[in-house]
Design a protein that fits this description.
Layout: E1 4-5, H1 8-28, E2 35-41, H2 45-61, E3 64-70, H3 76-88, E4 94-97, H4 107-113, H5 125-132, H6 141-152, E5 161-165, H7 172-180, E6 194-198, H8 205-210, E7 214-217, E8 235-238, E9 242-244, E10 247-249, E11 262-263, H9 270-290
Parallel strand pairs: 1-11, 2-3, 2-4, 5-6, 5-7, 7-8, 8-11
Antiparallel strand pairs: 9-10
Helix pairs in contact: 1-9, 2-9, 6-7, 6-9
The structure holds NADP nicotinamide-adenine-dinucleotide phosphate.
NADP nicotinamide-adenine-dinucleotide phosphate binds near residues 142 and 201.
Amino acid sequence: MTARRLDGKALAATIRGELAARVAARTAAGKPAPGLAVVLVGDNPASLSYVRAKQKACGEVGIVSRLDHLPAATKQAKLLALIAKLNADPAIHGILVQLPLPPQIAEDAVVHAIGSLKDVDAFHPENVGLLTLGQPRYSPCTPHGCIQLLRRCGHDPAGKHVVVVGRSNIVGKPLAVMLMQKPTAANPAGGDATVTVAHSRTTNLAKVCRQADVLIAAVGKAGVITADMVRPGAAVLDVGTNLVDGKLVGDVDPAVAAVAGALSPVPGGVGPMTIAMLLENTVRAAELIDGPVSR
Ligand code: NAP
């Protein structure tokens, strides 16, 4: 079997087209364009390239983005002061502080400081709580991107056994929460799946993974998911991003393509979907803060 490619790059372009129409309708109705503030501290090359990709995508849908690029030695108080300014700026609807941050800055303090209505990454405890209750204000970008990629490529997780490998607060845990939730009008992303979460202490990871109709790898170790861990025909999402000899690769060994029914590539799978969901949250933030366009 050669796995069907789950083309996140192409789907993200379609979603950007849909968002561009939503933004155009807002501006035509006299509402301000959605504004995203991106804050980068330091010169981590991967972070720089993510930030550039996010700003380029904003431009494509009509979101106005600004970048505050601060030196690596920036003190926490200075970053918090900038966030307070952005919280109060009516032209800014979403605030994204690119992680990781240098060691002198506590990530929690920064995440808590972003106004919860402008928290388009959905990391603020208030937004995590709302998501967990099944009343999301914003859905976290990578988990939401995974669910959209599955659904819109014909692999609806409803009723399926999904195994998520990884339990981080950014990917694995919120993804498991979203996948197990009942879809409702307030929470259309709910996956209605039966979910197993695996991690570094899971006994017999291969056996657990082989039970999956849908296997999602969010580990951060190149090739950790091998062909013998995949049930023939399963759909596999590769969230991992690992640099190996200067090349970006996922967590899924290339030999999995011969066993899986569908597989998301790295690059070009979950990554572009994550950015598309960030744009969607920013448009939603503008709708929540400035009001929807009246029909
Ligand atoms: P993380 O915080 O380091 O979490 C990794 C998870 O993998 C942990 O739960 C860890 O278990 C588990 N793990 C580690 N080694 C394992 C093993 N051998 N077997 C099973 N589980 C293992 O990473 P993250 O932030 O979730 O990110 C995961 C990957 O996704 C990274 O490569 C990251 O760069 C990538 N990522 C991509 C996107 C995108 O848009 N494409 C977005 C976000 C992240 P413990 O909890 O037991 O330590």
